[in-house]
Write a structure and sequence with these properties.
Layout lengths: L6 E7 L2 E7 L10 H15 L10 E5 H6 L1 H9 L11 E6 L9 H4 L16 E5 L3 H18 L3 E6 L17 H8 L4 H11 L5 H16 L37 H11 L9 H14 L7 H14 L23 E2 L6 E2 L3
Parallel strand pairs: 3-4, 4-6, 5-6
Antiparallel strand pairs: 1-2, 7-8
């Protein structure tokens, strides 16, 4: 599948060029979602986008996968936290109503709507008929405006169906016979909308057919079906070309001058302005001895010192996860807690 490889392009819009990136999804369904939001957060940080208006995440879900995969509950749980917030995501659920071969709601989930999971963060949900393109466009614009205004998640539940089942070679009527009797008697969404426009006198039926034929021809010829702009001159774009031919055996200079380490060690171990817990104070006393060469370096101190050299060289550094500040096994203590005030200090 082509989307497994990802894609990006600079698209021409009325407001100027816009870079669009499709994340590469090596697995099916929802597992890529936290990767997308992580990428968005990194791009916002790199651009200094503290208002979170310049980079917008859009996640496309399946109805059964949205309710069925636990990664989404984890995603929503972390989405409003300080370390992971991206200023809201626009979610679009392609709700084909069958969850592959399940039609009965009580076989698929315990909630009325597949979108009910997002209620955990009090996000609004717009339920819209997929056979009404103008209503869909209205909901898309409303969702974008809501996200940009309130910096919160919003979800569009696009009620539709799969005309051909799981893929073009599938036979969905084998498990959903009555549903597909109805579907096969329906004109396609394009045909319905073309008739609506023709009946209104907006375009002729012949013009509608010609537009569809031209669009299909461009797709089959591998042509772009949207207007592209020249690549953006983006100071924040990462140039990966120096690394394309690297191997695991490529030698990299990682040494740091001793005088630089001494300067960083003095900064890392200065705890004079904070009253530490006795056990943490002992760890920092030992680190000062390590800096003086009186004790061998342990993992926790070596790790903090390595981070300091990266920051000192101008590299960005983000360490996240459970107990990332303290360290799960009481070893890192990159963030210190004053025992009198509860205030925190980050020597790095």
């Amino acid at each position: 599948m082509k989307y497994h490889m990802g894609f990006s392009a600079d698209v021409r819009t009325a407001g100027g060029p816009m870079h669009v990136a499709l994340a590469f999804n090596p697995s099916h369904l929802e597992i890529v979602n936290p990767m997308v939001l992580g990428s968005v957060r990194a791009r916002q940080t790199r651009r200094g986008d503290s208002d979170r208006r310049e980079v917008l995440p859009v996640l496309i879900h399946g109805d059964a996968a949205l309710a069925g995969q636990g990664v989404n509950a984890e995603l929503f749980n972390l989405s409003q936290t300080r370390g992971f917030s991206v200023g809201g995501t626009v979610h679009v659920v392609i709700n084909n109503q069958i969850g592959f071969t399940i039609s009965r709601q009580d076989d698929a989930r315990s909630t009325h709507y597949c979108t009910d999971i997002i209620k955990m963060i009090n996000a609004p949900v717009l339920h819209v008929n997929g056979d009404d393109p103008e209503a869909v466009v209205f909901c898309a614009r409303l969702a974008f405006d809501y996200r940009q205004t309130f910096k919160r998640d919003i979800m569009i539940d696009l009620i539709c169906y799969r005309r051909h089942g799981h893929n073009e070679a599938d036979e969905p009527a084998a498990t959903q016979p009555r549903m597909y009797q109805v579907i096969r008697g329906l004109p396609t969404t394009r045909e319905q909308y073309a008739k609506r426009l023709a009946d209104a006198g907006t375009i002729s039926a012949a013009d509608a057919e010609q537009r569809a034929a031209d669009y299909r021809r461009r797709l089959e010829a591998g042509e772009s079906v949207t207007e592209l702009s020249a690549p953006l001159a983006d100071a924040f774009r990462v140039d990966w070309s120096p690394y394309l031919n690297g191997t695991l055996g490529t030698e990299v200079a990682t040494g740091v001058a001793r005088d630089k380490l001494a300067r960083l060690e003095a900064m890392l171990t200065d705890t004079t302005q904070i009253r530490l817990h006795p056990r943490v104070a002992k760890i920092y006393d030992d680190r000062r001895k390590m800096a003086a060469g009186q004790r061998p370096l342990d993992w926790g101190y070596a790790e903090n010192l390595a981070y300091a050299t990266l920051l000192d060289a101008g590299y960005g550094l983000r360490l996240v996860g459970q107990d990332s500040a303290r360290g799960t096994f009481f070893h890192r203590h990159a963030v210190l807690h004053d025992q009198d005030t509860g205030a925190t200090t980050l020597p790095l």
